Amino acid sequence: MALPKKVLVTGATGQIGYMTFRRLNEQPEKYDVYALDCKRKSSVRVPSSWTLEIPDDKFHLCDISNFEQIRQAVEGIDVVAHLAADPGSGSWESLLNNNIIGTYNVFEACKDVGVGRIVAASSIMVSQGHREREPYKAMMKRRHADIPDDVQMITPDIPAEPRGLYGATKVFTESLARTYANRYKMSCICVRIGQVERDRPRPPQGADIYVSQRDIVQIFERCINADDGLQFEIFYGMSNNDLRWADISNARRKVGFIPQDRAEDNHNYDAD
Predict the structure, then answer these.
(1) How many separate domains does the chain show?
(2) Is residue 45 part of a domain?
(3) Virtual torsion, Cα 81, 87, 91, 97, nearest 10 deg
(4) Beta bridge partners of 10
């Protein structure tokens, strides 16, 4: 019987980080999971009803801009799910320390100690420019009459179109992943995370890029367990929304991602 896979989740006191940690931790026969964050207190994005249950012996209190701390945390780990980041609400200095220097530290430390795979959080914000143009803008605003029948889906290989510094830092993450995959033969997978809400997306904007809690956790777990031969990929992490313009077919084909939800479930966005 195979030993449980050792997984480190960075950003584990954030919403997606904790959901991922909790899902893996519920399967001790498959995963020996550890958490890392710069604080013990949960993020403001975590629903107040949640209680973060992370044992002390599984938690690394760590500043990701500190390379030596990161190197110690990833020692002996098989897969790192890298979700630690400034979500765009801070200053450039915070984005630099967390999303640029911190992400570099994670990749470099993993390379140094021989971690085989990094599953890194990118963001739908790398594609915001597409969303600001027709017909994708019509899909965002649910102007059905302005949406052609043959919309070209935006695939991960279409050049990124960030419109802010946060999105630009996530393009850096993707470029870094490609570099380490090609140069050091590591498995590096990026997930462009859609809009994760605590319950339902805010209508009408957001329904096109919505991803449910269980769908985003599903794609991260599937990436963690992807075939060893999967060296570099970028996937959109979206639910099966009616007006989704981001193409998730490569995630379905390569890691078996099958969304269970859609933004429109139990919610009529088009009601008068």
Answers:
(1) 1
(2) yes
(3) 0
(4) 36, 82
pLDDT digits (tens, 9 = 90+) for 64-117: 999 999 999 999 999 999 999 998 777 999 999 999 999 999 999 999 999 999
For the chain, give me the number of helices (H) and strands (E)?
Answer: 9, 7
**What is d(CA 32, CA 26) in angstroms, rounded to the nearest whole number?**
10
* DSSP per-residue string spanning 108-166: HHHHHHT--EEEEEEEGGGGHHHHTSTTHHHHHHT-GGG--TTPPPB-TTSPP---SHH
Nearest to 24 by CA among 13, 14, 36, 35: 35
Q: Which tokens in the block code for residue 1?
A: 């019987």
Query: What CATH number does the domain containing 178 carry?
Result: 3.40.50.720
Q: Look at residues 247, 248, 198, 241 and name the one whose alpha carbon lies nearest to residue 219.
A: 248
- Domain membership of residue 269 (yes or no) is no
In total, the chain counts a number of residues equal to 272
Judge whether 84 and 16 are in contact, CB under 8 Å: no
